[in-house]
Queue: 4 jobs
Job 1
Amino acid sequence: MSEGHTLPRPLRWALGICVVIAVAVVVRRVIALAYPAHSGPPQLLALDALFASHAPLTLVHILPALFLVLLCPVAVFRVPGTKPWLEKLFFPLGGIVGVTAYMMSIYAVGGWTERSAVLFFNSLFLLSMARAYLAWKRGDVLLEHRWTLRAVAILFGIATTRPVMGFFFATSRLTHLEPQQFFGIAFWAGFSINTLAIELWLRHTGRMIAAPKHRLN
């Protein structure tokens, strides 16, 4: 890996936290689908019922997403000794997750505000995956890694939305906001934070890379 693309410690910690959150979200959703709760906070019960109404699609989306999340450290850090076929799974899994995300947006809790965030950032995710794949096929390791980092950051935007949602849930008694009102805001906030953070860092490292052919305009 190029020295210019060694992630600083804050970004490594952020990646690790996002992995944990994303895995926890998937596990929790699978358990909720398998063993529906009949008591608890009304807002959470309503959300569980919504996902249960399209359970097959939800599973087709979140299970590949779980494997993709677990592959992200391999794709980002180029873990020594990794089997080549393991890295090759990254791109088809990303395609499945991206396509099913569009389909999941039909049932967006936050209506068109959430749906617009999904359509925008999911398109960026698929574009980044496609650019990474093309660079990988050409053997341009540096360019492939830059686009992979973009894709991973956008992917983990779904994890970043969770603390934002948690804040809205915790303050709902004061704000009287329902999930339908704040889910879209949380999606835009979470995905924007990740996308801007990785882009600023890539732009910074891009200025430090000497080879002009590897720079992105």
Job 2
Amino acid sequence: MNPPRQCELPLFVYGALKPGLPAFESLRPWVKSAERDSVQGELLVRDGLPLLRLGSQGSVKGYLLVWDGGAEKAAYDSVCCFEPRNVYRWQEVTLQSGKTANALIGRYPEKGNPQPLFSNSWELRNDPAFGHGLDAVAQVLDEVRQTREGGAACEWAIFFRAQMAYLLLWSILERLTALCVGPGLDPMERIRRFPELKGFAEAVKNNVARCDSVSDSRNPRDRHSLDANDPRGSLLYYYQVRSNLSHRGKGAFSEFAKVRASLHELLAITNDYLKQMHSGEEANLHER
């Protein structure tokens, strides 16, 4: 995105850039203060991203980020690198406090089937992907663990369910990377940057106890290794397992153990990382 017309104004944030969430860390060096405030309007959600629609009814809660003197350009450059132009546009708004601020409001709010949030505050914990979605993955993982040998038909059936759960887990994780690193980035770039975020390396160390490697099914010379001390390499390993399922088809039952172990580890890593994010949200809620 291009920066707003008046960079000297503070920024009103109501989504992933709120204090307490990982994306805020990219702005922290330029923030002088973060004050609670609200604006008239309503919240919509499209593809997991919160959209502000201004109006005379309703109120949307968020934070007013006041920049350090002289840091405005760097701060807005960072915001523009995070938020995608095709989703948001700049608008100056008057907040409940009477202060004027820049805000990113939803571009094309009637397109793409956006849904009303029915809340005046967007919280990560309200996203069904990070609740019901992860619960569905965990349920299949329990089935995989409890399944005993029962012939080829039974084994293939549970293998397919493990693959389904693994692909669902990756769709959830890709949404998480968009909220933490930036929805405007290429998906693979988000995956490469995600392990750099605070807490991810610890989550990997806490949940990975094996070493392994996997080759690209389309180019066997490309290999990725699983290592508790290499969070980026480990995430690329898990992604390669996912890619092999998509491109190779469903005929590699010999890799059931790899898929099952990856499903168990990556679900635990995702849950551990989300606990840290939820703790940041909890701190914000307690301040209200």
Job 3
Amino acid sequence: MKPHPRWMTHVLLAAAVYNLAWGGFVVLWPLAPFRWAGLAEPNYPAIWQCLGMVIGVYGIGYAIAAADPYRHWPIVLVGLLGKLFGPLGFLFSALPWNAGLMLLANDLVWWLPFSLILRGALRHALQDQGPALPAAEALAGARTHTGATLAELSQRSPLLLVFFRHLG
């Protein structure tokens, strides 16, 4: 198995730094983005500060995913979904277009690299799967803790198999 390309780590670390910085900025100065966009300031800036906290938490997730993007692909998927739904929500809102400028850095620039990371993770996962064994061969090769094969056990009496698989 070949490891993930290094550019994926760099992209996710950049996303981590960006999200932590932007989230921290919004927590500390929640009214600044409204002033920049020429929008009326909200009555409850704490709601915007909560969003800043969530954005910062995404940054922590991206930093974790940077270590192994193929293993931590669900973090990238959740990030991409947020970056897709944010602009979609903007399109259906009554906000002025100049308020959408924040979408460029917050969302749109990440679409392509996050999509490519997810495509790479999918290809990696598909590579990981070897050809399926015929059932008889699989039962003959799988042994229990006592050394008996599943084929032997299934000939003695009916057998219930439970398979567990994790995503890690």
Job 4
Amino acid sequence: MHQSQILHFDKGVQYAANSYKTLLASHHVAISIAEVGTAWQNGYAERAIRTIKEEETEPTEFRACLDSLRQTESLLDEAHMNRRIPSSLSFSTPVEYEEQWAEGQAHLISQGCWV
């Protein structure tokens, strides 16, 4: 079944409770959790969460939870996808990187290469 969302968390016992995991599964939410002693497995998720906390949630006072959600969606849609230029993507934004990849795939197909 297609998972519509992924929830990343640490090893807290409250997150590992069967009732909580069942609730997440009933809402088609996948679980992301690193193995014990392998902190590098969750680096990308931790970095994304830190950015959201530092740039959006901590300096802002929200009137309602929905306001926080909208602001976080805006950060991910605008700032992350269109302005951030991570070195892991050859200093391109994620949108630019995906466009370059798609162009490369189209070129390969036009040359008779299957990808």
